[in-house]
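Appendix B, Record 12. Input sequence as logged:
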Amino acid sequence: MKKKICIIGNRGHLNVVLDDLKNEPGYEITGVCGAKEIPAEKVANDCARALNYIPKIFEENYIEMLDSLKPDILVVCGPFEEHSSMIVEGLKRKIHVFSEKPAATSPEGLNELTCAVKDNPEVKVAQMCGPYYEAGMWTASKNLDAIGDIRLLNARKAYKLGSRPDYFRNRDTSSGLIPWVGIHAISWIYSFSGYTPFKTVFATHSTEFNHGYGDLEMTAACLFKFEKDIAATVSIDYLRPENPDFDHGDDWIRIVGTEGTIEATSKECQLTTRSSHETLSEKPPYGMFADFLRSIEGKESNATTGKDFLRVTQATLLARESADRSEAIEMSQIL
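Logged structural output:
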């Protein structure tokens, strides 16, 4: 019998799920639901285009969908500000949840999420970030042992601004630059540090030159200190030139170890040690959602779940708070 998947909304990167499901015959989308300004029919049409079938449609009552269809997995792509409450409803029902990021946009949402994760440790939950799903980043992860103990990380994540929906004009509905864009780079530095706990963060951000997009920040920079005195910086912006020869996003990280360095982009990584300099690139074995399914199945997986999922979310929200307050923030262990 196929495992059942339900989907709320299509805001963000639902394609991450649909693309991987093309190669997962043991899973089936049984229901989709709209949310706020996201019509359920649009979600169903996305499924039809990718998978050639239309699931059962629920207009906006996702609770009814969960209780009537009792899925094994819930995919959350609803309004950003509702992610945490939607995830919690899934976890309470012992449903594994894969969510668009950020999983929470407020401290209150993160607290509710943390309680739900603690109360349901056997249920998997992850969000759409992590360094293991692009060739360069994946290859970097496979070569960390060659550079010794990690001491310093510098990461960059940039997007073209393009034309964005109105919900990006308001912090309450966009979450801000650091949670929406920066969470990618924050998940990279956490993973490549060896999942070392965060200790402090100091950040800054600015809405200057945002082309009339309300309170949307255009630039941000974060300085993180981990345990073991590991340091990391993250640069985030919407200023990637609108050049048709450029991809939409710019991903880069430099990882400094005691025996060498790695610099990685989305496509390749450069490994430098005392005796060699190599350019490497290896295709990741699994997509992001497929890797999450492996974690559910008890197979080896790099999906960021449990305490690591919560720590990345906490670091993201505290970096935004630090930028708002213009002061460093100590980070307690969330789990």
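DSSP finds ten helices and 15 strands in the chain.
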